[in-house]
Task: inverse folding
DNA sequence: TTAACTGTTGATAC
DNA sequence: AGTATCAACAGTTA
């Protein structure tokens, strides 16, 4: 579920709480959640955390990495002694009950803190990867939506003669990284573009607006700490984001369009629920 | 009860 | 190469 703003929110907090900590124990509780040798990263120290697209990278010393994809339902929950005693940074109450039913991996640090990788649907994963393997992985990706490399010229070149709906196109991370199903609907509403339009038929002016709006909406999502539905996405403290209250069209089928007062419609595009205003978006 | 839905993305067949 | 469909999985909703 997490898209760029959610992963970025997790990254920022994680950077503060686990940078400098040494991994002293790892428990893999499900065979599909952790790949690579546990022993390869035991006794390693986390030097930094970075994000590319929806991927989280733990930089380790000595030189390797733990790459993480949360997919639909992944969560990374950090709990240390202070949190268990009810102090420190605010957290959801249930983080003190970790591990939970859906905990798939537990990492223990040298300060006795734990990082819990919860993932109900088991689509997410953690992989031990060296720098070269990471580089190969990143090469498959387009620029992040908020990267300066993501421009109207770039997008025009990538979408030329393509017939898939524009909404589907901006969700392909080989084209642009970080946009998922929720923000795709939001972005196209703000850009006043019909999500069903064939991607190759947008004018350059429309692409310019699309690129600008994409960066704005995604940055807005980051500012509000991401979007939470049904408690599936939460930050490292188990707390919900705030952007679900700011959504303009997503999950608002039949409700009044904030622009014209007309009815928000829901359609399926590429098998995914898509919300838009037929009046405002063309 | 059963079917269809869900925030992701990779494989496959055409 | 680009597109459409299905699959991975578990839970909730119609």
Result:
């Amino acid at each position: 579920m997490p898209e760029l703003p959610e992963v970025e929110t997790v990254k920022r907090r994680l950077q503060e709480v686990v940078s400098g900590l040494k991994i002293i124990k790892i428990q893999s509780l499900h065979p599909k959640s952790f790949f690579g040798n546990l022993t390869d990263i035991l006794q390693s120290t986390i030097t930094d955390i970075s994000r590319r697209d929806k991927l989280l990278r733990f930089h380790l010393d000595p030189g390797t990495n733990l790459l993480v994809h949360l997919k639909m339902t992944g969560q990374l929950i950090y709990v240390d002694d202070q949190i268990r005693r009810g102090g420190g940074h605010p957290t959801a109450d249930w983080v003190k009950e970790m591990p939970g039913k859906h905990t798939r991996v537990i990492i223990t640090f040298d300060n006795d803190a734990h990082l819990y990788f919860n993932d109900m649907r088991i689509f997410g994963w953690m992989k031990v990867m060296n720098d070269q393997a990471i580089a190969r992985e990143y090469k498959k990706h387009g620029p992040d939506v908020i990267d300066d490399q993501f421009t109207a010229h770039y997008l025009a070149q990538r979408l030329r003669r393509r017939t898939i709906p524009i909404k589907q196109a901006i969700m392909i991370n080989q084209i642009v990284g970080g946009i998922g199903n929720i923000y795709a609907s939001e972005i196209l509403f703000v850009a006043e573009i019909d999500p069903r339009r064939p991607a190759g038929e947008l004018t350059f002016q429309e692409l310019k607006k699309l690129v600008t709006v994409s960066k704005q909406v995604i940055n807005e999502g980051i500012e509000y700490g991401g979007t939470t539905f049904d408690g599936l996405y939460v930050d490292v403290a188990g707390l919900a984001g705030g952007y679900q209250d700011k959504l303009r069209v997503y999950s608002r089928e039949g409700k009044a369009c904030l622009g014209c007062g007309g009815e928000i419609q829901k359609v399926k595009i590429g098998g995914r629920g898509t919300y838009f205003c037929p009046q405002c978006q063309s």
